[in-house]
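Hi Q.,

Before the meeting this afternoon, I wanted you to have the NAP prediction in hand. No need to reply - just skim if you have a minute. The sequence and ligand are here:
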Amino acid sequence: MKTILITGAGGFLGGVLAQKLTSAGHVVGTGRQHADRRVDLRDPEALRRLLAETTPDVVIHTAAYRDPDFCEEHPEETRRLNVEPVRLLASGLPPSAFFVLISTDYVFDGAAPPYRENSPRHPLGLYGRSKMEAEDLALARPGALVVRIPLLIGVEPAHRGPSGFILQMARQILDGQPADVDDVLVRFPTWTEDVAEAVAFLLEKRAVGVFHMSGARGATRYAWTVETARLLGRATDHLKPLKIPFPRPARRPLNAELATGKLRQLGFDRFTDFAEVARRILSALGIFQQ
Ligand SMILES: NC(=O)c1ccc[n+]([C@@H]2O[C@H](COP(=O)([O-])OP(=O)(O)OC[C@H]3O[C@@H](n4cnc5c(N)ncnc54)[C@H](OP(=O)(O)O)[C@@H]3O)[C@@H](O)[C@H]2O)c1
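Predicted structure with the ligand bound:
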């Protein structure tokens, strides 16, 4: 039986991946605090030890700092987690092991969507730059796989408590407090379950190189909020569309739509619509009743 090592297995995506892949092999989930096997990936010795002890056939590397503002304000720390462990994994794994890196739409500047796998990358901030560097390190390894994804939606791990894009919107809809909501940046919310399914599919197909996985519909946060409010049968009069980007430490791409033709051509067709995912998440949280 294959050993599949998943970093960030207590995280938003890693947790779903760890569950999904139990039928594909023996899953070893690692995290800093929330996983069976606790390893600080910033410690090269600890990472080497982990690889020597687990001898994985497949490594799926999800662990990273993913908050663009945190990355912008902590460049050194960002490199320590988002880049250096990838260098060690890509060069330290035996040639027979298969390396998968989860990357992001933030490697693109968002000025000329949609982006294909071979479109030129031009990150606007340190988060995207760190992931671009990680991609290059991963792809220097023959036969590696890089899966780029946009904004994730789903049920966050239990230890974090209720959180995430859909719940944040629902709270803003339900609390009735006046607020400005971004109506500039186009986002493509993508279900963690679909991403995990796509990664399992690509593993099964022994796909290598870069693949994009993304929800099919793009809209601004304001438009997603209005759609969520409709599902909840609530008004959004207290929410105003903000037509200029919120001032934040990191610049965000305006529209970094990831074209998914390459993945579809290989036969993958699970792209669950936002409305369906929102219904499920709001039901799971006890907010939406049919
Ligand atoms: N979330 C999104 O919307 C999104 C969008 C595009 C791309 N991505 C990419 O998808 C991947 C997964 O994102 P996610 O949302 O699942 O992230 P997440 O929920 O923040 O999880 C990150 C994981 O990394 C682990 N980690 C943090 N510091 C660590 C350290 N020093 N040593 C070992 N593990 C450490 C955490 O472990 P503990 O929980 O144990 O502390 C956590 O499990 C990332 O590579 C991200 O760039 C995410």
